[in-house]
Design brief:
This protein is of the alpha/beta class and 146 residues long. The protein is built from 4 helices and 7 strands; from the N terminus they run αβαβαββαβββ.
Length: 146
């Protein structure tokens, strides 16, 4: 193939592929107005290629409940991204795994506020266990461990 044609083909491919690669994932994160670690989590996500719109609310428990997250499985904040709920300080790698695999669930959750998780202070002392948020009334199952 002629080198100039090869270059033109590559340039055309890059022009179309670059915007798709560069576009950040859009997310909306609901948090308690006084919570600082949620801001830390949003900053962590932004550093990892997400565009996060943070919305302070006093109705966080209700938002999580309506999204299907069982009360005993709720995390510190509730995020919605590409049709899924992500509750708590879930690592970006696991959020990306969810969005790539697209399982038939409502979302995922990392319950509580584990030390050393993204946005939280301290040192990670044990693996983070991320659970499914089922759509069908089934019990949550382990989705990933990191």
């Amino acid at each position: 193939m002629n080198p100039s044609i090869r270059f033109a083909s590559l340039a055309a491919f890059m022009a179309f592929a670059a915007p798709a690669i560069a576009d950040p994932l859009q997310a909306t994160l609901y948090k308690n107005p006084q919570c600082g670690c949620c801001e830390g989590y949003a900053a962590y996500l932004r550093e990892n290629g997400f565009n996060v719109d943070v919305k302070p609310t006093n109705d966080l428990l209700e938002i999580s409940r309506k999204a299907g997250v069982p009360e005993n499985m709720q995390g510190c904040h509730t995020m919605f991204i590409d049709g899924y709920v992500v509750d708590g300080h879930v690592p970006a790698t696991i959020v990306r795994k969810l969005l790539k695999e697209r399982p038939p669930i409502a979302g995922i959750t990392l319950p509580g506020m584990p030390m050393g998780s993204p946005g939280m202070a301290g040192t990670k002392t044990e693996p983070f266990v991320i659970y499914t948020v089922p759509k069908d009334g089934k019990k949550p199952e382990v989705y990933a461990t990191e």
